[in-house]
Amino acid sequence: MPARLSPVTSILSICALALGLAFAPVPAAAATMGDDGLHKQDWFSLTFRDIAEDIEAANAAGKRLALVFEQRGCIYCRKMHEVLLADPEVADYIKANFMVVQYNMFGDEEVTDLDGETLTEKSAVRKWGYVFTPTVVFLPDTVPTGKSVAQAAVATMPGSFGKGTFLDMFRWVREKGYETDEHFQKYHARMIEQRRKASAKTN
């Protein structure tokens, strides 16, 4: 016959369960599908796609500007939204440190490049030479003079990677690793080793 729990033990067990639920990781909000066939995060920024203005807006908020290029039916874009951006650690870091603006690789919305040229999304993508989706482009924290987005970008991440690589790229940009002698690959390797050591200590 199973042992009966005392009223006090039962109350303590319920409290422990409630606390566990309260402090359990909360999944990031699920992406929705837009009319353009692209997955949407509710924390993506909607702007007039004037890149210089967006850099200034991000800077005023204490963040960096990242542009993400996607296309309808892209399975790797779906993975980015449903796996990477659904991870609270990834989503929370990006939301806290970056202003993200989504671009449709074949879209017709008007874009104003950093050099002042006005063109459509799809024309801008051709001008900048981006061919993969998703592609994440990181801009400097100040508006450059006479450069296009492709020329001004401090880093570009083509394709969808694993969580560690994806998040480390955002961290490397935020920490301005591109201004140091530590190439991203070396930074990423160092972060992998740090995580390995931290995991070994807790096991």
TrEMBL record:
Lineage, top-rank taxon, reads Bacteria
Q: Which UniProt keyword terms apply here?
A: Signal
Gene3D superfamilies with a match to the protein in the record? Glutaredoxin
Annotated signal sequence is 1-30
InterPro entries the UniProt entry points to = SoxW (IPR041737), Thioredoxin-like_fold (IPR012336), Thioredoxin-like_sf (IPR036249)
Matching entries from Pfam families are given as:
Thioredoxin_2 (PF13098)
Domain Thioredoxin-like fold: residue ranges? 59-141
What's the name of the protein?
Thioredoxin-like fold domain-containing protein
Look up and give the organism this protein is from: Thalassobaculum fulvum
